[in-house]
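Narrative of accomplishments. A recurring question from our advisory board has been how the design workflow behaves on a single, concrete structure rather than in aggregate. To address it, we present the structure tokens for one chain from the evaluation set, followed by the sequence designed for it. No filtering or post-editing was applied between the two.
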């Protein structure tokens, strides 16, 4: 396996591309937006500079990593020689189904099709293709170059050989694969998102403020980041999407998104990506409370 195509140049996509390229794979990074691709390469370059500053890689390794990445605005061109395609587009089921249907029609018969979805059924995604046995989940954690975990999820029809190949590949890029079953949210988000949602409910019910809730969880539970700050980092729209998938999948009210989360997403207060969420990120104020919301 030498050529790996990554669809989506956002936070997860550029992190996945960075990681594979750093380990010597030829990476084709694909996005419909040329500006998104340029931004992704800039981010990867800056992240590599941070690794150089920490003496984790050499300047020459940075040059080799960037040389391993090519960019494409056409899926058909980008996946032409791919042994593996990793889809890292927006967490939108209809979009993913459309992408996988197209991939199954244009990729070679032996290409493995992986999705970085954090909650959507692998079986359902695979059903949109003509080769469900070649479809698998690879749920990387953010930031991808740093976080070790990759949840590996087989669909109902995923071939054992595909699972074995992806587990082995994950180890080759110095990650730790954990095999989990295909249920909404898998393991990571089935546990994490209800905690984040309950933290938002706690704020919504005025039990405590943003900083106070995060401080309790950091100091009392030894979390490196409070749940509200983490939600901002993930993206409140992504959190809402994952909760909706789990609520729809389990029909259990404990997964119903808090009204405050819904309202914030509707108001485009999405966290770091929009400059404001539970904290204000304008002018690099990364820990300023959004006072106007809870005056």
């Amino acid at each position: 396996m030498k050529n790996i195509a990554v669809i989506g140049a956002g936070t997860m996509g550029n992190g996945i591309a960075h990681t594979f390229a750093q380990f010597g794979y030829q990476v084709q990074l694909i996005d419909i937006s040329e500006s998104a691709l340029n931004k992704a390469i800039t981010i990867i370059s800056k992240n590599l500079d941070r690794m150089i500053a920490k003496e984790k890689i050499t300047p020459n390794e940075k040059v080799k990593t960037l040389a391993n990445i090519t960019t494409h605005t056409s899926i058909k061109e980008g996946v032409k020689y791919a042994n593996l395609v990793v889809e890292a587009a927006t967490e939108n089921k209809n979009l993913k189904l459309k992408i996988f249907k197209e991939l199954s029609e244009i990729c070679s018969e032996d290409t493995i099709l992986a999705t970085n979805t954090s909650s959507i059924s692998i079986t359902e995604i695979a059903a949109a293709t003509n080769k469900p046995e070649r479809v698998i989940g690879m749920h990387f954690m953010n930031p991808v170059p740093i976080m070790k975990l990759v949840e590996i999820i087989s669909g109902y029809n995923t071939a054992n050989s595909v699972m074995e190949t992806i587990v082995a590949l994950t180890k080759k890029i110095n990650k730790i694969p954990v095999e989990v079953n295909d249920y909404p949210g898998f393991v990571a988000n089935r546990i994490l998102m209800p905690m984040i949602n309950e933290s938002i409910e706690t704020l919504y019910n005025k039990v405590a403020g943003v900083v106070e809730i995060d401080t309790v969880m950091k100091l009392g539970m030894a979390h490196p980041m409070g749940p509200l700050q983490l939600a901002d980092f993930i993206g409140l729209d992504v959190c809402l999407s994952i909760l909706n998938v789990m609520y729809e999948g389990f029909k259990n009210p404990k997964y119903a998104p808090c009204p405050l989360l819904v309202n914030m997403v509707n108001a485009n207060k999405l966290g770091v990506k929009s400059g404001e969420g539970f904290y204000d990120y304008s002018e690099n104020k990364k820990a300023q409370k959004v006072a106007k919301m809870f005056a």
